Amino acid sequence: MSSKEKRFTVAGTDINEVKQLNQQSGLSYNEVKTLLAAKYIKSKNEMK
Fold it and tell me: Which of 11, 12, 24, 34 is the most buried (most CB within 10 A)?
């Protein structure tokens, strides 16, 4: 299947459009948690 073909869910959602919008949306929830945890650990280590 070509990447230019439209793929839709049963509800009519354009799958490729959703994937594109997700890529443009920024950090995911898990990426934010990881980033915050790393900053927290770094600040704790600097306080020692």
Answer: 34
Q: Give one DSSP letter per residue of 13-48, joined into a string.
A: -BHHHHHHHHHHS---HHHHHHHHHHHHHHHHHHH-
Q: What is the pTM of this model?
A: 0.53
Partnered with residue 8 across adjacent β-strands are: 14
pLDDT band at 5 (very low <50, low <70, confident <90, very high): confident
Cα angle for residues 45, 43, 46 (degrees, 5° grid): 40
- Region for 35 from its dihedrals, namely left if φ exceeds 0, alpha if ψ lies in -120 to 50, beta otherwise: alpha
Number of domains composing the chain: 1
